Amino acid sequence: MKRRSLGPMEAHSETHSIEYEGIEIEYQLIRKDVKYINLRVNKYSQVVVSAAKRVPFSVIEEFVQSKALWIITHLAEVEKLRHAQPSGMLHDGKTVYYLGKPLTLTLAQGSPQITRTETSVHMVTRQIHPQELRSEYLEWLRKEAETVFPKILEQIYPLVKELEVPYPSIQIRNMRSIWGSCTVEGASIRLNLQLMKAAPECIEQVVLHELLHFCQPDHSKKFYRLMEERMPDWKARKELLETEFKDGI
Ligand SMILES: [Zn+2]
């Protein structure tokens, strides 16, 4: 895709281009009440030239030509900045993960609603700022987690029933560094909202891990033996969780 076309068009602008050592440089020309000619590169990597009405076009062209090297250098810097942006920004066409599946996010403006299909997540929103989009998305994901996590707990609990582990309540938190934790006294486990992006077998591994802490609080040999007996492939599941399903949101 041509990146330069992604930015909004300035009002009443004309598109022109010059050539510099074989490179075509496109620019938007705006006639307005400026002293003479201004040239800038905006954050969308668009070259914008403002010129007073009285300045002949040939002069403008010559001016842009004389700035060609500066423009090329500057465009490269803007591109670098763009790539340095955190990948967590929600945008139309972004790949997001939902229970291990990569889905395409589509954005539209309107009355807020998020719907999911086999291949996409369609987000209708009034927000335009990336940060607010993100919290709206995470709020939706949390609601989904409120159904998904209890179901997984229900499936995994029978594996620890004989160990007299209490049936815990679930708390959901969006956390940076841990997948889960447990409070033995409170009979509750805390699960990272980010787990919603992982395949169910990875979530099962975390749930079993936390459940086993109710009878074995440390990470001793005994703990891992209990784990191994109940889920022989837990390591592969953990490995998958650590390496896959990251979408930065
Ligand atoms: Zn642990």
UniProtKB/TrEMBL annotation:
Concerning Pfam families, the annotation shows:
YgjP-like
Q: Which PANTHER family match?
A: UNCHARACTERIZED PROTEIN YGJP, UTP PYROPHOSPHATASE
What is the source species?
Anaerotignum lactatifermentans
CDD domains listed in its UniProt record: M48_yhfN_like (cd07344)
Tell me the ranges covered by the YgjP-like metallopeptidase domain, including all copies. Answer: 35-243
Q: What is this protein called?
A: M48 family metallopeptidase
